[in-house]
User: Which sequence fits this backbone?
C-alpha cells in the first residue's frame, strides 16, 4: 500500500506502534502530541521536530527567505507553546541546492534569529547538506512549566472549548498570495504577516498551564482537524457553535462566504485551542491579554468526532476535515 | 555568491557568526563541533541534527530501507559518541513521496529501532511530511559522561593521534556497491555492512572521556578532512604516518593501490579519531577492547594543516582534502 492511500495520520499511528514499546519505558508522551516529553532529574523536557520542503510547504514565489526563517522556527516553537512549555534550544538542519545565493541563507537565518530572540530561544547547532530543493528541518527542545503540561488527551466531557486570537487569517493570507489578490496596503500586510510570520502563543500557553488548563493543541492543521486530534486522543466528542468562531473582520469583509471555511479548515494560524472547566476558562480570560473566545464544549457523546452547530443548534455537514498532507 | 562557490565549511562559518552572539550566552559549544552542548542544573546536555537526502546521500539502488533506517540514526548517535556522551532520545522527521510503500517505511523504522535498541536510545517523537524524495532528518539528544566532553578544539602539541578500528572499509563498500563489483559472499557482506550499517563507537567514546582524553571527532568526512577540523579548531598541526593508518586486509587485497586513498579520504567509517598525551593513549589501548592504532602526532608547527609522511619521514602531497558536499 502506498503512503498516499494509507494517509498521514494512519502512517503516524503505524510508526507509533512500531516504536511504542521502548518509548514507554522512558518517555511520558511519545509520537502523537505536539511535542514529545520525558522526565529527567530536574523536571520534564520537551522536544519537537518538523520539516518544511520547498514546493510542498512553501514556494519561494510567495515567501521571502526572512519570512521562511521566521516561520520554520515559529511552527516548532508553537509546538512547545501548545504544551504550555518554555522553548529553550533550536537545532537547524538545512538542505539546499548548490545554486542557492549565500545572501538568501543569511536572510533565512536572520528571520530565524528574529523569532528566537523574541522568545529567548538559542539556536544551538545544526548542519547544512546538499538537496535538490530547499528543505528546513528544525528541532526545538524546552522544558515544562512547573512540571505540568498541556496535552491532547486531557479534554473531559463538560469542558468548555476556547481559542486564542482569530482563526482563518493565515489561510486568507495564503489565498491572497496564491491568487495575487489586490487589497489595501494595510490589509495586505496583515494577511501576509498572519500567514508568513505567525506568532507562537508561548506566554499564553504557559499561563494556561499555570492556571489549571490541562488540554490544548496549536492550530496548525485547521480547527476541525486539530480539535479532532483532541477528541480522538481524549476519547470525547466536541460541539462547535460556528457563529462563535472568531474571525478577523478584515477576513470577513474580503472573503465573504469563504471566511468561515478558512477559519474552520484553513490551518497555520498557530493559535492555541484549549479546553477546561468553565471557572478555569473565566479565570484565564481575565488573566491573558490576548483575546480568548469560547467556541463550544466537549461532550461524552459522539466520541472522536467534531460536530458543527448553527445558531439554532442544528448539525451542519462539513466534509472537509483538516488537512491530509498526502492526499492533496 | 552561490553556496557551491562559497563551500560547505565557509557557509557553516557564516551561519555560526550570525547566530554566534545569543549562542554564547547559554551554550558551551555551538555550531562547529560534532554535537552542540549546553549546561543545565544537572549536567551537560548534548544534541545533534543531521539530514540524509535521497540521491544526494544515498540511493535506493544500493541501500535497503532497513539499512537506511540504521544508518540515518547511526550517524547522529556517532556524533554523540564523538563527544564521549550518552545518547538518550531520537526525534525523526521523515519527508517522503506519496507513492512510497508503507511496508518500506516499516522496514526503515525497524532498522532505526535495531540501532536504537543496541545503544539504549529511545525514539521519542517525530513527524512525517510530503517531499519529492525520501528525506530523513534525525536529531539525537544525550548527556555528557561525568560532566566531561571530547571536543574538536582540545588537541595540544605533543599529543599522539589515534583511531579506533579500520579506515576506508566504508568507502570500499560504497565503491563495491556503485561499481557492482563481485567479491566472495563474506567480503561482500563485510564491505556492505561497513558502509550501510556502521557501528557508532558509543562505549569507546565514553571510555575515552572517562580516562582523560579531551580531543576527538568521528570520521564521517574522511581522515584528512576530519583531522583538519581538529587542527583548525585546536590551532595545531598534525603529522600522519601513512604506513600506520589501519586498513582492513580485505580492503588492501581487493582495492590494492586505492586502499590508502579510501582510508585517507573515504569517509563514513564512523570510527573515532582522538588525541592525547602518550601515557593516556597507552592506558586507553589497554582498557578498550576495540583495536586502537596510533597514526601520528599533533604539532605546534603548520597549524591548521594535516601533513602526510611516508616511511622515510618525507611529506606527501595529497590534494584531496575531505569531502566538500557542494562541489561534487
Assistant:
Amino acid at each position: 500500500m502506498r503512503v498516499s492511500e494509507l494517509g498521514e495520520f494512519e502512517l503516524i499511528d503505524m510508526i507509533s506502534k512500531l516504536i511504542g514499546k521502548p518509548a514507554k519505558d522512558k518517555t511520558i508522551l511519545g509520537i502523537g502530541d505536539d511535542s514529545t516529553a520525558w522526565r529527567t532529574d530536574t523536571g520534564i523536557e520537551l522536544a519537537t521536530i518538523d520539516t518544511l520542503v520547498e514546493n510542498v510547504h512553501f514556494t519561494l514565489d510567495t515567501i521571502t527567505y526572512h519570512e521562511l526563517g521566521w516561520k520554520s522556527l515559529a511552527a516548532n516553537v508553537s509546538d512547545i507553546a501548545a504544551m504550555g512549555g518554555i522553548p529553550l534550544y533550536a537545532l537547524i538542519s538545512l538542505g539546499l541546492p548548490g545554486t542557492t545565493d549565500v545572501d538568501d541563507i543569511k536572510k533565512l537565518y536572520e528571520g530565524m534569529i528574529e523569532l528566537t530572540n523574541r522568545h529567548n530561544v538559542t539556536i544551538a547547532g545544526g548542519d547544512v547538506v546538499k538537496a535538490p530543493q530547499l528543505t528546513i528541518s528544525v528541532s526545538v527542545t524546552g522544558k515544562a512549566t512547573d512540571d505540568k503540561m498541556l496535552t491532547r488527551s486531557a479534554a473531559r466531557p463538560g469542558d468548555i472549548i476556547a481559542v486564542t486570537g482569530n482563526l482563518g487569517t493565515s489561510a486568507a493570507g495564503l489565498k491572497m498570495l496564491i491568487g495575487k489578490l489586490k487589497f489595501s496596503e494595510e490589509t495586505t500586510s496583515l494577511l501576509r504577516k498572519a500567514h508568513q510570520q505567525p506568532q507562537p502563543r508561548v506566554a499564553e500557553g504557559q499561563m494556561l498551564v499555570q492556571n489549571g488548563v490541562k488540554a490544548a493543541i496549536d492550530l496548525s492543521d485547521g480547527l476541525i482537524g486539530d480539535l479532532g486530534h483532541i477528541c480522538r486522543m481524549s476519547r470525547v466528542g466536541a460541539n462547535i457553535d460556528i457563529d462563535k468562531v472568531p474571525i478577523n473582520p478584515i477576513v470577513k469583509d474580503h472573503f465573504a462566504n469563504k471566511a468561515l471555511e478558512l477559519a474552520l479548515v484553513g490551518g497555520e494560524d498557530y493559535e492555541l485551542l484549549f479546553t477546561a472547566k468553565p471557572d478555569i476558562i473565566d479565570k484565564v480570560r481575565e488573566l491573558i491579554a490576548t483575546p480568548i473566545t469560547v467556541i463550544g464544549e466537549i461532550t461524552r457523546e459522539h466520541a472522536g468526532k467534531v460536530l458543527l452547530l448553527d445558531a439554532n443548534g442544528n448539525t451542519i455537514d462539513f466534509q472537509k476535515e483538516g488537512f491530509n498532507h498526502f492526499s492533496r
